[in-house]
Amino acid sequence: MGSVRTQPGSVRPGGRTARVRAAVLRAAGDALVENGVHGLDLADVAFRAGVGKTTVYRRWSSVPGLVADLLDDMAEQSLPRSDTGSLLGDLTANARLVRTTLADPRQGVLFKAVIAAATCDARTAEALNRFYTTRVNEWAPCVEAAARRGEVPPDTDPHEVIRAVSAPLYYRLLASGDPLDEAAADRAAAAAAIAAREGAYARTER
User: Fold this and answer.
1) Model pLDDT for residues 162-180, shown as the tens digit of each residue
2) Which keywords does the record carry (predicted)?
């Protein structure tokens, strides 16, 4: 096999390098919350993190590279899925976790900034896609387990069910402005569970 070329910021370091990465990503998140992607500056991030500018420029090289690594780190740090023993219980746990994240004063603003950036930057869009793919894949097994228990049809697409849970919550965050409360999370989970039981998310032939 040939060597694998990595993008700046994609190597998972240890020791002091790991501490530098953590400090820089924390600073980048702070700057994103305060100023948005368009106000993100590598020199400012370096200052906030207390590291040299050359370190940041050498490792991440660009704002999109830094945002991409921030998203990768967020995916790594996300909580694992729950296993309540029922589809509704698992989907409710997922919905409440998404809701807690999006309703958080820092995390909600951070996601808005990154999603906005992804609409016009391919690398950020790719990183955002990786983030959501990681999270959907993390929770999909709860739908597979429900299929084994007979709660949903065996041909249910688990990824579509998980996407259906979070979609109404992201709509509230980005479009409607309706409250992101626990009741909204519970309704999203219940709706997805009912639809899944009725076969709405059956895999289709392509």
Assistant:
1) 999 999 999 999 999 899 9
2) DNA-binding, Transcription, Transcription regulation
